[in-house]
Amino acid sequence: MRWFVFAATMLLCSAVQAGDCIIRVGYPDRERPPYYLGHGTVVPERPGAAVDLIRMAVSQIGCMAQLVRLPNARLKFALVNGSIDMAPVDLRDGEQPYSALPLHLGVPDTRRGIRVLAVVYVRVIDAIPSDTDPRHYFRNHKLATIQGAPLGEQLRDEGYVVDGGAADAYGNLKKVMLHRADGFAVSIANVNAMDSIVTTRYGGQLLRLHKPMRASTVWLSASNDYYRQNVDRMEHLWDWWGDNAASKLNELVRGYAAIK
After folding, report:
1. Could you tell me how many helices (H) and strands (E) the chain has, helices first?
2. 3-state SS of the chain: helix, strand, coil percent to 5?
């Protein structure tokens, strides 16, 4: 009986501590299955694999995530001005960070992030070989990316013609189907995570090119102010993220496999 009272007390204390530690975490408000599901400001019951991962990561430091859904273009500014405490940040190698990241020898530590690849879906009817290098092919063809996503800005900087983009993955895939763009590029951690969804929804009319468009790293980044006030907490979170995030995300993606 004493053991039961002790265990119950410890659980209550843990819950109180987590309740006292609320972290405002921003993430994109547009659908990118299986990572982000739903639209707008309301967090759905099944929010997506990436959101579940963020909640899991925050719980590892004894806190609870207060989820804030924002347009991609506003996420960066919210993180910079401190109106949110954390957000997933996708930076290509060598890109200048704008918020707090784990460092190693003065540069962002990719070992404590998730490596992601920008994959491209094209029309089967165009008979593009699946081993085509998209970095060469799309020098003369138009790409679509999710509206406001960092990927679109980065590809434009590299000289690619990038459509203004629909707000979510399905809208951009529709653009490809309607010949308003020649391919849809999206950054994902598991290159085949969307394949079954795309095949089911579009009946084999789209295929993914085997070679990625580019590589980058996703960190759960903190605002500079939040990091300065919570250095040990963030360093612990980043250690967990580097050791576990990629494998946990793969498990969570499998759990969303039935969602069409």
Report:
1. 9, 10
2. 40, 25, 35
Domains and CATH numbers, the chain: 2-88+220-255 (3.40.190.10), 114-215 (3.40.190.10)
CA 106/CA 192 separation, integer angstroms: 33
pLDDT at 259: 54
55 to each of 49, 66, 171, 231, 242, how far by Cα in Å? 10, 9, 27, 19, 15
Residue 126 DSSP class:
G
The residues of the chain scoring below 50 in pLDDT are 1-18, 260
User: What is d(CA 206, CA 144) in angstroms, rounded to the nearest whole number?
Assistant: 14
pTM of the model: 0.78
Burial 102-137 (b: 16+ CB within 10 A, else e): beeeeebebebbbebbbbbbbbeeeebeeebebbeb
